[in-house]
Design brief:
Blueprint lengths: L2 H28 L3 H14 L17 H14 L2 H13 L3 H5 L6 E2 L4 E4 L8 E4 L2 H13 L17 H15 L5 H15 L4 H8 L8 H6 L3 H12 L4
Antiparallel strand pairs: 1-2, 2-3
Length: 241
């Protein structure tokens, strides 16, 4: 950033701070509550024709099939049962890392293969699913730790932090020679379900915890259907260039 640009940015921030201070005084004098302020702000945006800048759409990054399997192969070679379960559950459920860390034993229904996610993103509760074949491994893990409160618990009997899970994923990803974060496996799960499950967008929205159904549209681009790809390749064969 040039000196002139830095000066302009500083002046711009100062001007906005002064405007915010003036508005705060008006709000306090008027005795507006939160809902009253929301109404006023909405009307001001309308009067001034203020609209948010349109954000570009970025496709989520997922692992190739080879990299995906290589990652879990490295995890299994480490022979850490808790890490293996934790990192597989990230994919099977598509939960966010903060939601994973907050899962308690009491939240798990092994018979129905369901996990209750309490106060997920947006302070919303929901239920996620996991495969029946995975239930046996979870049942064994829970039985081996009968006094645990959290599904994944440290040696100090505290739950894992999101930072620690991020470090664990980074460690195995580096060992496997791939790039991945905990959120990669959420993208991986939703992409897989979009391609293979036949679930409607509304159903995917329920179990993945997306606030808007439109958000799921980006996964349709990542999970191009195999039939679509085949039709494309066959069509291109007919082009005589």
């Amino acid at each position: 950033m040039t000196e002139n640009a830095a000066t302009f940015a500083s002046q711009n921030e100062k001007a906005k701070s002064e405007i915010a201070s003036q508005i705060a005084k008006i709000v306090r004098r008027s005795g507006l509550d939160y809902e009253g302020w929301r109404y006023v702000a909405k009307q001001v945006r309308k009067e001034c024709d203020l609209r948010p800048a349109k954000k570009g759409r970025r496709l989520p990054r997922t692992l190739t099939t080879d990299h995906f399997r290589r990652f879990y192969k490295v995890v299994d070679q480490a022979d850490d049962v808790q890490h293996s379960l934790m990192l597989r559950l990230l994919f099977y459920t598509g939960v966010r890392v903060s939601e994973l860390c907050a899962i308690q034993i009491a939240d798990i229904d092994l018979e129905a293969c369901k996990i209750r996610i309490n106060r997920g993103k947006g302070d919303k509760d929901r239920v996620v699913l996991f495969g029946k074949t995975f239930a046996t491994a979870l049942r064994t893990h829970i039985a081996a730790h009968p006094n645990n409160r959290w599904l994944f618990q440290t040696r100090r009997n505290t739950r894992y932090t999101t930072r620690r899970v991020q470090q664990i994923v980074k460690h195995y990803a580096e060992q496997a020679g791939v790039k991945a974060t905990p959120h990669t496996f959420r993208h991986q799960a939703i992409t897989w379900l979009t391609r293979h499950s036949g679930l409607a967008d509304a159903e995917l929205q329920l179990i993945t915890g997306h606030a808007r159904r439109e958000t799921l549209a980006i996964y349709q681009h990542v999970a191009l259907d195999g039939d679509l790809e085949q039709k494309y390749q066959e069509a291109m064969k007919k082009v005589d260039l």
